[in-house]
Every structure is written in structure tokens, then in C-alpha cells.
Design goal:
- By secondary structure, this protein is of the alpha+beta class.
- The chain has two domains: about 60 residues, lambda repressor-like DNA-binding domains (434 Repressor (Amino-terminal Domain), Orthogonal Bundle), CATH 1.10.260; about 110 residues, Jelly Rolls (Sandwich), CATH 2.60.120.10.
- It has five helices and nine strands.
- A six-stranded antiparallel β-sheet has the order 1-2-3-9-4-7, with no helix packed on it. A three-stranded antiparallel β-sheet has the order 6-5-8, with no helix packed on it.
- It is globular and about 45 Å long.
Length: about 190
């Protein structure tokens, strides 16, 4: 999905609910400028702010990511993972993560599964986030730094981490080599 679609979907839900940018900023704790940038400048935030926007609008995260509807079972072939979402994560608006949704289309899902490419830019700024739910991550390649509260862990291929995402956390590439992970987010309704 491109960022134009994301911005239009968020704007449409805001309009349906009669919520202004200022009201959404107050509900989410995000800056109004970021919300405006998502709607008009094709900015794509990291998952933390996107989750806060979804929760504040009373929709699940997948509502913004889904382009199609499928029936059970949903199968995503590796060759079909070309659609990616470039997440802005650093303070200078570099794309530092590329998300490939593995649940797109399953409209009744309760988890958000992703294949994520962590670019070296992801390790430049530690931007802790917190939101309701849980996350499970498995490192596929490269080395990953996971910060959870006041603790930092280095994860290698095959290592995993499972945590309550209400605790401030950050996951990024360790060093100058890209890394890849599978991540599953559970967000309670």
C-alpha cells in the first residue's frame, strides 16, 4: 500500500467520526504536524503512531493496510511479498524499515503478522514506543537490538523475543548491516 492510500483512509475515518486533526492529536498524543504529514505529504509513520491513530479512530490497524478481502485460509507466497510499506522512523525522516504485511486481506484477524526489513538507518535514533498489546519477533538475518524498558538485548538469527508492548520498546538493526525479522503484533480490541 502506498502512503497516499494510508493518508486518504485515515482522513476518511476522521471525517466519518467528525474528528479534527487537533482532536486526533490530543487523543493520540501525537503532534498535529505528523498527522497532517501522513494525510498530505505521503509520510508513513512507524507502527507505534499508526496503532495510536487506529485505536483513537476505533478501528484495527489492518483497516489501514488492507486492500482486498480474502477467505480462509490466507496464503501469502514469498513472490507476492513485493508490496512494502516504508516506515519513517528516524528524526530526519529516513525510511528505516520496510514492512511486508502477511495478514493483508484477512479482515477478521486479531494479529498483525509482518516480514520486516530493518535498514541500518533504523539504529541511528532510538525511538521508544508503547501501545496496548503484545509483540513476538523472530530474527531471520542480521543482528537486531531490542530495547525493552531499561534493558537492551542483542538478537541473532533464530533468536526470538516476546513482550508486552505497553512497556516502552524499540527494535532496530544492529550495526551497518541490514537485518530481517518476522513480527506478530496482537492488539486487543
Amino acid at each position: 500500500m502506498d502512503s497516499h492510500k494510508l493518508g486518504r483512509r485515515i482522513a476518511a475515518y476522521m471525517e466519518k467520526k467528525g474528528i479534527t486533526i487537533e482532536e486526533l492529536a490530543a487523543r493520540t498524543g501525537l503532534e498535529g504536524g505528523l498527522i497532517r504529514a501522513i494525510q498530505t505529504e505521503n509520510a508513513y509513520p512507524s507502527l507505534g503512531p499508526l496503532l495510536k491513530i487506529a485505536r483513537s479512530l476505533g478501528v484495527r490497524l489492518g483497516t489501514f493496510l488492507d486492500d482486498q478481502i480474502t477467505t480462509d485460509p490466507l496464503i501469502v507466497r514469498k513472490a507476492d511479498q513485493k508490496d512494502e510499506i516504508g516506515m519513517l522512523r528516524s528524526r530526519n525522516n529516513d525510511v528505516s524499515m520496510k514492512f511486508h504485511s502477511l495478514g493483508r486481506g484477512k479482515t477478521d484477524r486479531h494479529m498483525e503478522p509482518f516480514f520486516i526489513e530493518l535498514l541500518p538507518e533504523s539504529g541511528r535514533d532510538s525511538l521508544m514506543s508503547s501501545h496496548e498489546g503484545e509483540e513476538f519477533i523472530v530474527v531471520i538475518s542480521g543482528q537486531v537490538t531490542a530495547t525493552y524498558g531499561n534493558n537492551t538485548y542483542t538478537l541473532n538469527p533464530g533468536d526470538s523475543i516476546y513482550y508486552n508492548s505497553v512497556v516502552p520498546h524499540d527494535v532496530c538493526c544492529c550495526g551497518n548491516q541490514a537485518a530481517s525479522i518476522y513480527a506478530v503484533l496482537y492488539i486487543p480490541e
